[in-house]
Every structure is written in structure tokens, then in C-alpha cells.
Design brief:
33% helix; flat
Amino acid sequence: MNDDPADLLRLHGIQVTAQRLAVLAAVSGRPHGTAEDVAKTVRGEIGVISRQAVYDALGLLADTGLIRRIQPAGSPARYEARTGDNHHHLICRICGRTVDVDCAVGAAPCLTPADDAGFDINEAEVIYWGRCPECLAQATVRSGNEGKTEPAARVVNVRGGGNTE
């Protein structure tokens, strides 16, 4: 299999440009980055690029399935190159750190709603919210409550199946 990014773009019918290659590389190199993170990385690689060009490239790459857009509630959209496996995310409420977690149960969509309302469901998007180990440790030290913690995660968004909160 050819891993050349230019060939990958061509395979998906996307015209190869330096901007698109740089955006794809930036997303691959920094999973869960925002559009601003991507723009900063791309500017460091190729110099001047407009914010709109970055958004356009991100939109095109996401629409063709080369990257994935996740949109946590109350947070800017984030982008990653890990696609096609229906994995989920853990997000720290304090620092925003985002990490991948494999599908909760079996294959996609891996969750079944109580009522599918006649939909043919093929994906579940789950975001677990809580505090990462670093923020949890800092909060425990500040409060003096070593050993006492709150529940660290809960499902807040299931695309295609309604909210489980």
C-alpha cells in the first residue's frame, strides 16, 4: 500500500496542493488539534496561509473521509487522521486534553439506542468527559482531599441515538 500523501489525495479525487498536503500532515502529526492549531503548524511549515484556506482544506479532507472532525459540546471542532474505526474520545474538562479510546462494545456502531426510530444507524459518537490524570492530581493536591475523587467520565453525546445524559 502506498502511504504517499499526494497519492492519497489523488486517490480520493482531490487536487494536490502544498496547502492541502501541509494541512493533512499537520492533522496527522497532532491528533485532536483545532483549526487554529493546524493553521499554526502549517504556517510553520510552508509560511503564509490564510485562515480560510485552512478551513477549506480541513472541510474538504473531512468530507472525503481522509480526516475526522469531532465537535465536542462547548469546544471548537477538532481534527484527527484516525478514521474508519468508530473510536471514541476522552476529554478533560480542565485542560481540554483529548485522547482516543476504542469502541465501547464490539463493532460499529457499538452502541444500540433504546429506540432507533426507524433509522439505519451505522455510527455512534461518544465523548467521555472528566479530568485527566494531571488535572486530577493538581486538584487533589490543592484541595487536600487525597483519595477523594468525583466520577471521571460520562457519555454526553451519541450521534444517531440521542443524548444519554
